[in-house]
Amino acid sequence: MHSQFGILKGGTIINILDIFLFIAILAIWTILIVNIILVIAGYVNYLRQVKTPARELPEKVPFVSVMVPAHNEGIVIVKTVESLLNFDYPHDRYEIIIINDNSDDNSAELLGRLQKRYPHRQVHVINTDKTNGGKGKSNALNIGLAAAKGDVISIYDADNTPESGALRILVAELMADDTLGAVIGKFRTRNRNATLLTRFINIETLSFQWMAQAGRQQLFHLCTIPGTNYVIRRSLLEDVGGWDVKALAEDTEISFRIYMKGFHIKFQPKVVTWEQEPQTLSVWFHQRTRWVKGNIYVILKNTHLLFTKRGRPIRFDLLYFLSIYFLLMTSLVLSDTVFVLSVAGKVHSNLQGFSNSLWLLAIVLFVASTYITITTEKGEMNFSNVLIIILMYITYSQMWLAVAAYGMVGYVREQVFHKQAKWYKTKRYQ
């Protein structure tokens, strides 16, 4: 006998809705607990790292090619290049290569002036056009790699202002350990006080980007290249064939291939770069949608390795990404839908009260763990950030859910209709 959302069995109504809701709650809480464990491990890693002095450069300082892919970056490119010229790395041991990728703004003119202003520094500009450029970051990086002279390659986005010691510390770490294929730093939000959105992003970056990196390194010796502020061995890049031009998330994709080659990636939190973040919802939505599509591509490209011996180095990351982009998203959609329909009186779930209690507890844990992570940064430990984190859980997390759903639908549509994914250019600000 059937009832609304239930089956009568042995005199007891088994509510199908309750079963699905229970599975959703279990999935959400499993992922939440995993993230809390990562935060705790990341904090332990932080305490260990701050007590460890940065390594010194070897006696034979390697030559480094610092590459900056740039498409219509006239607003920010001068400040970025000047900050790269300000590295305390020996000036005769690094070059700067800007790949001015099919830009139609004043980037070429501005970069030409920079070259004249610094005639004794190795600043090279590669101007591409629509025949060989304008095809995304991976393609631009491959073009730069072909022209680079360094044994070590360093990557910075066009909106970055790294601190002066960044390159020196990154290279010193890489040269000290032959098992490392790459070393990454962290990025901070340069415009964090511009809008409420950038305050959300600032906390997201501190807690869910670099603290999660530190936790994964502490527990699993795993890190993922963040796309900027990192160094990588040129020989390794050439061995894996450069960057995958189909990958929108080229950083995650090449991270997996580094591990598959038997190398490791190290996270060094002392290395900091400051970057611009989206200040409007439209720009944020498009940027994050690109991230989602890119990560789905990487997940599906490597899923066949999940339970193979060859895929062991990246197994945790594959499971983690699968859980975040598929299991968590589905569970949150189901949980939120049941909550809304229950409040509207359209459905009844025996677990709704239990679910709401767990939801409140999840908020408390989210706020507490997130606040702990940002206390490691100067100027972030204040009461206003507690309120921001609470608001972030209620609003920003739901916005991410919408982005994930939209990105997934967009990815499926592109695959069905055999469309090439387009690289979205993030808007910059003065």
From TrEMBL:
TM region(s), chain numbering: 20-46, 318-344, 356-374, 386-409
InterPro entries membership: Nucleotide-diphossugar_trans
Alphabetic keyword roster: Glycosyltransferase, Membrane, Transferase, Transmembrane, Transmembrane helix
Entry-linked CDD domains: CESA_like
One example GO MF annotation: glycosyltransferase activity
Assigned protein family: Belongs to the glycosyltransferase 2 family.
Protein name stated in the entry: N-acetylglucosaminyltransferase
Taxonomic classification: Bacteria, Bacillati, Bacillota, Bacilli, Lactobacillales
